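Retry 2 of 3 after timeout on previous attempt. Resubmitting structure tokens to design endpoint.
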């Protein structure tokens, strides 16, 4: 190799070293490069581990399939740790979805694979595993609370039998008479020959139902 060829080779090597190296398929996705030089490193992405998940979301729960029914049915797979159905705070009715937690992650995985899209009372159940980092900290708040439906008959009875002042009783009687008069007028306008019975009762409040203000 002559002198000229050696000089040309040196120039080509200098030009190649001056140009930035194109990232190849192995190093194009590196996260950082070490200060002392060398190949780049990539931070490993930690995928959420579903094997440690014990909490399941259950959606499209049919009417009548509540806590006792869910516990009785899903206990065939394994031990249930906690169970909760989302309910309306005012009426206590089910929102048709809930959460269940098993003691074993393997059991939870089997339940998710077995019961997803399972037809139950014309409803396709939606069962999914919830990873531990996505479990809300308040998901089990009040899970053991037994809802007692409101006895509306008792509430109405108490409201009807409560003590009233003379002004309250007079207002109550006036409302009854006003509704009765309106009812009679509708019957007459309809052309129905009907004699409405008179309202039997006292317009004055009974002594035991009067509340007098203490002086």
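Retry 2 succeeded. Sequence:
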């Amino acid at each position: 190799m002559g002198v000229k060829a050696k000089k040309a080779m040196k120039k080509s090597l200098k030009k190649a070293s001056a140009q930035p190296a194109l990232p190849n398929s192995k190093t194009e996705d590196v996260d950082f490069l070490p200060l002392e030089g060398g190949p780049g490193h990539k931070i490993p992405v930690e995928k959420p581990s579903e094997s440690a998940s014990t909490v399941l979301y259950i959606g499209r729960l049919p009417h009548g399939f509540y806590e006792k029914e869910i516990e009785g049915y899903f206990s065939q797979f394994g031990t249930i740790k906690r169970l909760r159905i989302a309910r309306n705070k005012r009426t206590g009715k089910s929102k048709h979805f809930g959460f269940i937690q098993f003691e074993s992650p393997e059991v939870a995985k089997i339940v998710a694979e077995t019961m997803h899209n399972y037809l139950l009372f014309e409803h396709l159940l939606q069962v999914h595993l919830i990873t531990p980092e996505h479990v809300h900290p308040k998901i089990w708040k009040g899970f053991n609370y037994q809802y007692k439906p409101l006895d509306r008959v008792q509430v109405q009875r108490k409201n009807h039998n409560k003590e009233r002042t003379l002004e309250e009783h007079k207002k109550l009687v006036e409302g009854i008479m006003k509704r009765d008069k309106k009812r009679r007028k509708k019957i007459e306008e309809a052309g129905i020959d009907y004699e409405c019975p008179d309202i039997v009762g006292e317009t004055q409040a009974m002594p035991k139902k009067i509340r007098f203000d203490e002086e």
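Attempt log closed. Helices lie at 3-18, 67-74, 105-115, 152-160, 166-189.
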